[in-house]
Design a protein that fits this description.
The structure holds two protein chains of two kinds. Chain A has a single domain, classed as Fe-S hydro-lyase, tartrate dehydratase beta-type, catalytic domain (fumarase). In chain A, 19% of the residues lie in helices and 31% in strands. Chain A contains five helices and eight strands; from the N terminus they run E-E-H-E-H-H-E-H-E-H-E-E-E. In chain A, helix 4 links the parallel strand 4 and strand 5. The longest helix of chain A has 9 residues. Chain A starts with a strand and ends in a 9-residue tail after the last strand. In chain B, strands 2-1-3-8 form a four-stranded mixed sheet, with helices on both faces. Chain B has a four-stranded mixed sheet with strand order 4-7-5-6. Chain B has one domain. The longest helix of chain B is centred in the N-terminal third of the chain and has 20 residues. Chain B has nine helices and eight strands. In chain B, helix 1 crosses helix 4. Helix content of chain B is 44%, strand content 18%. Chain B starts with a helix and ends with a strand. The radius of gyration of chain B is 19 Å and the shape is globular. The chains are: A alpha/beta, B alpha/beta. Chains A and B meet through helix 5 and strand 7 of A and helix 3 of B. Bound molecules: iron/sulfur cluster (SF4). Chain B: Keywords: 4Fe-4S, Iron, Iron-sulfur, Lyase, Metal-binding.
């Protein structure tokens, strides 16, 4: 298991190939269908700075944050997958979720030196690794607001990186 | 309120929490066996993490998944027992308290018919605002009043299917159709390994009710030949845990066959229970 501190620095990237298991430490953002398109609209309108959110080297976990905890939603839902290019361009290094992404998204991730990792739906375990949580933006979205979590060892596995994906025909899980 | 009714409320609350936080012993053993046989270290790691989550959930009484599901209630009544409005009220009260204590994810949608459909008025903050699915009551031979609580997650609902199959007087025709649906659904489910729960009946309602019975009574360590065949064929699909490939796409299959219609048609309800399901607990009231 490779331990990774957030924000993520560029020179880490060559080692993060598909099939690498990683543990994430530090502050991660969360967002899903409701809030990620709004975040992209802020970026496109040059208003992200006003929120105090810094996406350089960031991790975005596709989840709601409810009293029940957190757990990955499908990253290939339109309102989530369609935000991956703009968020990668804005500096997000790891998109964290579940499910197969399109070949086009995998190419875009490569172009912006970002990766996609999947996290098992293990809410109770993740709960034991969350040290702090706060709403970072869009509080009106309730559990789907843009949250920031401070985490200690979130377990995940690199599923798409450097133009390759674990879901491709012919690729075997290492 | 008499002591007996108080007891019912408490027992139902505990059953809901147990369904949401505990993996059965037979499910844990089948997962452990899969870990021993999977050749890929990454696939083994996924299965180990799912098991570790189950242990943490049980110890901390936290939900195994943040999609805590919609409560479904199945009440068995036999012998001299009776079901009164007071007993039903206590059951619903126990469900509400369980959802608050766990806590479940607040998922009840506000508004009128159209507003609920469009989800345009937001959600209630109270997890207990979630109304359980219609209760099913069944007469049984035993002298019992027994409640089964199931918590049904959204992913398996998206990938589930209730449809007609033309059987052509061959079990293999029905099986081929089920396996084709299951492989398609498992590839999209994400939260594999799955456990297909299947009901076959005369109507859509009956097939869905039989599927729920299959979830309640199915055992990972007791599989008949048809269940084994469905599991084996799914495991040849190389979808694997979390879709990362491998031999463990399904852990088992739970099948319930009801009375059948004199016709060329069978109604099949298939629900691909995800890796945290079936979330079910049973309690004598
Ligand atoms: S499919 Fe199951 S494990 Fe996955 S998010 Fe839904 S309830 Fe949780």
């Amino acid at each position: 298991m490779e331990k990774i501190n957030i924000p993520i620095v560029d020179n880490l990237f060559p080692s993060l190939v598909i099939g690498t298991r990683i543990l994430l430490f530090g502050k991660i953002f969360t967002g899903r269908d409701a809030v990620l398109p709004k975040l992209v609209a802020l970026i496109e309108n040059n208003k992200l700075d006003e929120t105090g959110i810094d996406l350089k080297g960031a991790v975005i976990f596709h989840t709601a944050v409810s009293p029940a905890g957190v757990g990955p939603t499908s990253s290939n839902k339109y309102d989530i997958e369609s935000t991956i290019p703009a968020l990668s361009k804005a500096g997000v290094k790891i998109h964290l979720g579940k499910g197969r992404l399109s070949p086009e998204t995998i190419r875009t991730l490569h172009e912006y030196h970002s990766i996609y990792a999947v996290i098992p739906p293990v809410t109770a375990l993740l709960e034991s690794k969350i040290l702090e949580r706060r709403v970072a933006a869009f509080p009106e979205e309730g559990m789907e607001a843009f949250h920031q979590l401070r985490v200690e060892g979130f377990p995940c596995i690199v599923a798409a990186a450097h133009g390759k994906s674990l879901y491709e025909e012919g690729s075997e899980s290492p | 309120m008499n002591q007996n009714l108080n007891d019912i409320q408490l027992k139902v609350k505990e059953a809901l929490i147990r369904a949401s936080t505990v993996f059965s012993a037979d499910k844990k053993s089948v997962l452990s066996r899969a870990i021993e046989t999977e050749p890929s270290p990454n696939v083994r790691w996924v299965l180990e993490t799912i098991l570790e989550n189950a242990d943490t959930a049980e110890k901390t009484r936290r939900p195994t998944c943040d999609d805590t599901g919609i409560p479904h209630l199945f009440l068995e009544v036999g012998g001299q027992n009776s079901v009164t409005p007071d007993i039903l009220r206590q059951i619903y009260q126990g469900v509400a308290e369980g959802m608050q204590e766990l806590p479940c994810r607040p998922m009840a949608v506000k508004g009128s018919d159209v507003q609920r459909l469009e989800q345009s008025m937001g959600l209630f903050d109270d997890p207990a605002a979630l109304v359980p699915a219609p209760i099913r009551i069944q007469l049984v031979e035993e002298n019992v009043l027994r409640l089964h609580v199931l918590m049904q997650g959204g992913g398996p609902e998206i990938r589930g299917k209730t449809y007609r199959v033309f059987h052509q007087h061959k079990m293999s025709a029905i099986l081929d159709e089920i396996v084709a649906w299951a492989i398609e659904g498992a590839g999209l489910l994400g939260c594999t390994p799955c456990t297909p729960a299947i009901g076959i009946g005369r109507t859509h309602y009956e097939a869905a009710a039989l599927m729920l019975e299959a979830m309640i009574h199915g055992r990972f360590d007791q599989q008949n030949a048809i269940e084994q065949e469905i599991t084996e064929r799914l495991n040849q699909s190389n979808i694997g845990p979390l879709g990362l490939k491998g031999q463990t796409t399904a852990l088992a299959t739970f099948l319930r066959v009801g009375p059948q219609r004199a016709s060329g048609v069978r109604i099949v309800c298939l629900r691909l229970c995800c890796c945290v399901e079936p979330r079910v607990a049973s309690v004598l009231l």
